[in-house]
Amino acid sequence: MAHFPKIESQAGESQDFRRVLWTGENSQLVIMTIPVDGEIGEEVHTVDQHLMFTSGTAKAIVAGEEKTIKEGDLVIVPAGTKHNFINTAKTPLVLYTVYAPAEHATTSVHKSLEEGEKLEEAGKDEPPAWAQKDAN
């Protein structure tokens, strides 16, 4: 069992853009802090993503639809859906997210969007083979 008491507080205390907390065979828990004027970055995953926003406000752009997101909101992004979340507040946008199955390496800690993108492009942020589903 993995236990994360007061996950909202833990997410809010992190200064990292992205930090993996736990990876299982079928899912992965990640906390994120998006700086003022920052964004998650437009992306498409091969896995489902559930995002729970614990502080701040954002403009969500999911499959071309725009919506205002605020503290307490949950957004589910199905696999294969283009999406981005842009911080619109004067404070960091804080969230925790669950990928199903895993999207990142089990030890990923990215200080910034740029660092995360660089590692992903270099193939250094891949989930472990045991956490990837066979497409066949």
Task: Give a quick precis of the structure.
This protein is mostly beta strands and 136 residues long.
Write a concise keyword list for the protein shown above.
single chain, about 140 residues, mainly beta, Jelly Rolls, about 40% strand, globular, RmlC_Cupin_sf, Cupin type-2 domain-containing protein, RmlC-like_jellyroll, Cupin_2
Walk me through the topology.
Elements: H1 7-13, E1 18-23, E2 28-34, E3 48-55, E4 57-62, E5 65-70, E6 74-77, E7 83-87, E8 93-100, E9 109-110, H2 113-121
Antiparallel strand pairs: 1-2, 1-9, 2-8, 3-6, 3-8, 4-5, 4-7
In whole angstroms, the N-to-C terminal distance is 30 Å
The number of helical runs is 2
| Approximate strand percentage | 35-45%
User: What does the oligomeric state look like here?
Assistant: single chain
CATH architecture: Sandwich
What does this structure look like?
- The longest helix has 9 residues.
- This protein is 12% helix and 38% strand.
- The model has no long low-confidence stretch (mean pLDDT 92).
- The strands form 2 sheets. A 6-stranded antiparallel β-sheet has the order 6-3-8-2-1-9.
- It contains 2 helices and 9 strands; from the N terminus they run αβββββββββα.
- Strand 4 and strand 5 form a beta hairpin.
- It is mainly beta.
